[in-house]
Amino acid sequence: MLNSERYDRQIKLQGFGIEAQRKLTSARVLVIGAGGLGCPVLQYLTAAGVGNIGIVDEDYISLSNLHRQILYTSDDIGKLKTEAAFERLRAMNPEVQFHIISTRITTENAVNMISEYDVIIDCTDNFPTRYLLDDACRILEKPLVFGAIYQYEGQVAVFNIRNKEGFASHYRNLFPEPPEPGEVPDCNEAGVLGVLPGVIGTLQATEAIKLITGIGEALANKLMTINVLNYQTAVFEIPSMNLTDKNIPFSIEEFEYMNYQLHCGLEYSGIKNISPLQFNQKATLPDTVVLDVREPEEQPKLDLPYISIPLSQLNENSGQIQNRNIIVVCQSGKRSITGAKILQEILGPEYSISHLEGGINHLNKETHE
């Protein structure tokens, strides 16, 4: 039963009313990522009364998250983000049904996850997942609300909404080719103003509400950019063109065979991707060294012997590495594959070079379980 008192102030809005509220109550929204963008998205959709919300994230809360991931407190450090988010959101609005999925979205599980929801919201921070979501939503014809942040700037767009001519824009129309690994630093390297994810995440939640209720004009086939230092804002039309690249999946079968790590340059010939289990087995073997390419202040630290050389200093300091077997690690696996490629080019084929897939985030998740 709809509790009209809880939503009284938006029901009273001209052009909104009880019917729009009922649409929200019956809607199903999937939020991929419960970090800086996901926190405000989840809070505002919960407060607005979206009836069913799925939350996908495999990460654990760390101290460095707290300046921007406002669902969490210091007491939550070490907890799964999905579980901590569920506790807060359920207290905020017990009328909403939540489904928490404490794993990463992959080609194996994406179709089943996405098929159950009306609107998908991309709150991720890596290119393989963005391209994966774009392809899956395009194939399944699901609206995708995109958001991205970088230092002081943010972007918002809505994909897979057909215009009057029957065309819909996609993330691939905006960015046909993934950037080279390391070309676009993440917030671990470049930093981010804490309020920026709040601004962009709130806009993403707004777009989702507009899509569900039919109010206003969504950012369909458009990209909005904002710089919070000077409030320069722009809205661009995204070309709505048919995708024809043979390397792009156009069916569920093609999608499930797609390797997005390889597609985004995060896998290379001769560099082994190793799992947390394999890492724990190999890290302390004779003639093996673990190389951490994060910045020195990044947490958590590894609890085994390792060498620390930041990625930006690896070229000139690779001579510090004497071992023949090298395992490169970073926070999420993006810098480590770049570091492994640098070492491969410098050291040559006589060295065995691996990198920890998913990084220390993935390692900690497996260790907790």
Automatic annotation (TrEMBL):
SMART domains linked to this entry: RHOD
Keyword Nucleotide-binding applies: no
GO molecular function: nucleotidyltransferase activity
Sorted UniProt keywords: Nucleotidyltransferase, Transferase
Domain of life: Bacteria
Stretches assigned to the Rhodanese domain: 284-369
InterPro entries for the chain: Rhodanese-like_dom, Rhodanese-like_dom_sf, ThiF/MoeB/HesA, ThiF_NAD_FAD-bd, Ubiquitin-activating_enz
Gene3D superfamilies: NAD(P)-binding Rossmann-like Domain, Rhodanese-like domain
NCBIfam families linked: PRK05690.1
Protein known as: Adenylyltransferase and sulfurtransferase
Organism, as annotated: Chryseobacterium profundimaris
